[in-house]
């Protein structure tokens, strides 16, 4: 939860006060964003997802939150950790992954979400945020 809801201040008393004032609404926004993203994915027609700029922004933030949770679960904190993840996903592509291993499966999912977020960011950059992103 510290990755999704980081401390708002270095002083522990100040941080606790800030958290008491903001945590509920922040949690509600995050849950609402995830719910909206899931609803958007469920409405996909003909294997094509079209998003307007606002939806794309919400989708990007939801992907960031999902990646933060997975990164914490996978212990991704340093460049070395990122290299370890890359090695895991490379093994899968080479046919050597053990999908019964939860961490390897989560690593693949994290890698996919990273690709998805990068693809969406590129689409937004390419279109300049105009009309719809694909």
Automatic annotation (TrEMBL):
Pfam families linked to this entry: DUF2017 (PF09438)
Protein name, as recorded: DUF2017 family protein
Organism: Branchiibius cervicis
